[in-house]
Design goal:
Layout lengths: L1 E5 L4 H12 L3 E6 L14 E4 L5 H7 L5 E4 L6 H6 L1 H22 L3 E7 L22 H20 L2 E7 L1 E3 L12 H10 L4 E4 L5 E2 L1 E3 H13 L6 E5 L5 E2 H12 L5 E4 L14 H7 L7 H11 L1 H13 L1
Parallel strand pairs: 1-2, 1-4, 2-3, 4-5, 5-6, 6-11, 7-10, 8-13
Antiparallel strand pairs: 9-12
Helix pairs in contact: 1-7, 2-4, 4-5, 6-8, 6-11, 8-10, 10-11
The protein binds nicotinamide-adenine-dinucleotide.
Length: 317
């Protein structure tokens, strides 16, 4: 297969690109490097720097491509609250641009990296695909709009479409920006540095943490599976984990117990999240294979940034 990954120099995109070249596919990546870094991409990946809304660039990159993985997006929930227009421009506008360019060139299938945040607040768990979306933040609204554009334009222009609602992915290579960092690498880094952890709310809010390799397996399966056209499919671990339990797992993996400070003035966002995986199992043959303790151990072992902060403490203890 010849594929294009938009946002392919990011956390999930790099892991996906490297898996696909290992499987023998021809991989092109388009990324503007606003958050990504091409250094971790296999030399066999053809990297192009550019904006996903640049349709003429997409036309040339899409020649002879059978499948697009559309991952390019701004990805911070709190940032989207501050910059809703930017999130709409990139995450919705970028998706429409990809679909129009695919129509023009005649590409067969697109796999959209959507998000579990589109569920927002629901009355029951686990979260399953038939639930009515209830987005609470601009990032989630944009992902829901992207799903609708992908399905609608796909149906109009005869492009096969599938949207994966990815839960909280973590693993080596995930960026740790100075503000609004994702929870797993942020808490791990602070624990290794011997700092205190600040938890919003009481730490009893739950999330579904899924290891990057499992997400990549689902993305690859979605590009090849029959009978997935116009389907929304959850991708998670199926395990509901409180933030307090995550901190315990991080403490065990890091070999040190951090001090935890609870900030009751702020909420931790949507209270409970866990994926129902029946549809993923049925349509993609998906079964998560990495537990949270295993995933945290692999993150510690494989991520040089984490190793850097880990090593001195080992030496001292
Ligand atoms: P990431 O920030 O590491 O990757 C996104 C990539 O898109 C970055 O490399 C960035 O440079 C690129 N990008 C941003 N704007 C662009 C533009 N205008 N043109 C071209 N490239 C652009 O984030 P990630 O965690 O790898 O997420 C990948 C996708 O998966 C995103 O669509 C995200 O919304 C989705 N997703 C991720 C998670 C998760 O837990 N990581 C969960 C749900 C959904």
């Amino acid at each position: 297969m010849r594929v294009l990954i938009t946002g392919g120099a990011g956390f999930l995109g790099t892991a996906l690109a490297n898996r696909l070249v290992e499987l023998g596919h021809h991989v092109r990546v388009l990324d503007d490097l606003s958050a990504g870094d091409p250094a971790r991409l296999s030399p066999r990946v053809l990297f192009t720097r550019g904006d996903v809304r640049d349709v003429p660039k997409l036309w040339s990159l899409l020649q002879s491509v059978q499948c697009v993985f559309h991952l390019a997006a701004r990805v911070s929930v709190p940032e989207s609250v501050l910059y809703a227009r930017d999130y709409n421009d990139v995450n919705v506008g970028g998706t429409v641009a990809v679909m129009e360019a695919m129509r023009d060139v005649g590409v067969a299938r697109v796999v959209l990296a959507s998000s579990a945040t589109v569920y927002g607040v629901q009355a029951s768990l686990p979260l399953h695909e038939a639930m009515r979306p209830n987005p609470q933040v601009p990032y989630a609204v944009a992902k829901l709009a992207a799903e609708h554009y992908v399905f609608t334009l796909g149906a109009l222009h005869h492009i096969e479409t599938v949207a994966l609602r990815i839960f909280n992915a973590y693993g080596p290579g995930q960026r740790i920006p100075p503000v609004h960092a994702p929870v797993v690498p942020q808490l791990l880094k602070q624990t290794l540095a011997g700092g205190s952890l600040v938890v919003f709310g009481n730490g009893q809010q739950t999330r579904d943490f899924v290891y990057v390799d499992d997400v990549v397996s689902a993305l690859v399966a979605a590009s090849q599976a029959p009978d997935v056209n116009r389907q929304i499919i959850n991708v998670g671990s199926g395990q509901e984990t409180t933030i307090n339990e995550l901190i315990q797992a991080i403490a065990a993996a890091a070999g040190r117990a951090p001090e935890v400070l609870y900030n009751d003035h702020e909420t931790g966002g949507v209270v409970h999240m866990v994926a129902d995986l029946h549809k993923a199992q049925h349509l993609l043959g998906y079964a998560p294979s990495v537990t949270l303790p295993q995933g945290l151990a692999q993150l510690l072992e494989k991520d040089p940034r984490v190793q850097l902060s880990h090593a001195p403490h080992r030496g001292l203890s």
